[in-house]
Write a structure and sequence with these properties.
elongated, 6 helices, Four Helix Bundle (Hemerythrin (Met), subunit A), 214 residues, mainly alpha
């Protein structure tokens, strides 16, 4: 493990770790406001078009959504384990765990892309070729507008997270992180947990209405 010195303007590595964690929490707070406003808009329209949203939700691919939820939860477990491994000076183990989480994230995006392809084929994209039961078409179009918009935004965040995890895995393999210096891996982990948490909310809003009585 190579020695790491605090970056300017920090006096100690502990101070640098604390500043990094504060920074990521502030960033996550702004992201919560962003996704929160999106979800609030969804809830307003869902109240106004409850039957339409339930009918539209039944056309989502719940098997894929459930699989993707399990994939992200598993990846978050590996990321949390990687932080612990890095703090125990087990850089190679941390690298392997982060790389596994990144691969799971890529699998998540792959399945999401396949799901999109199925929905485009079924003319569920809210564009000119959108086709749905005329009795629910208006609200269903709004539902799928939210669905594609929110999941695409989440997908962008997930893709960024995969890149971050991969870079962090490379640095962990070189022995960069330890009990004294773990700010980057902790920041990467917190970001990935946020991506996971957002998906859990989206899963509940998108896939469960009309199936759970919601």
């Amino acid at each position: 493990m190579r020695e790491v010195k605090p970056a300017f303007p920090y006096m100690t590595l502990a101070q640098q770790n604390e500043a990094a964690q504060l920074g990521i929490w502030i960033f996550i707070g702004t992201e919560v406001l962003f996704f929160g406003a999106l979800i609030l808009g969804y809830m307003v329209y869902r109240y106004g078009f409850a039957d339409d949203f339930a009918a539209a939700a039944r056309h989502t691919k719940i098997a894929i959504g459930t699989a993707n939820t399990a994939i992200l939860l598993t990846s978050s477990f590996f990321v949390a384990w990687a932080v612990t491994a890095a703090k125990d000076d087990s850089g190679r183990l941390a690298a392997m765990l982060l790389a596994t989480a990144a691969l799971l994230g890529a699998l998540f995006l792959g399945l999401k892309g396949y799901e999109y392809a199925l929905e485009f084929r079924e003319h569920l994209f809210p564009g000119g070729a959108f086709t749905f039961d005329v009795n629910h078409a208006r609200g269903a179009r709004l539902f799928f507008l939210f669905y594609f918009g929110a999941t695409a935004l989440h997908g962008v965040h997930a893709a960024m997270g995969i890149v971050i995890l991969a870079i962090t895995a490379g640095r962990a393999r070189r022995g960069t992180y330890s009990a004294r210096y773990h700010a980057p891996i902790t920041v990467a982990a917190l970001y990935w947990h946020f991506v996971d948490l957002v998906w859990i909310f989206l899963f509940a809003l998108i896939y469960l209405p009309g199936r759970s009585g919601g």
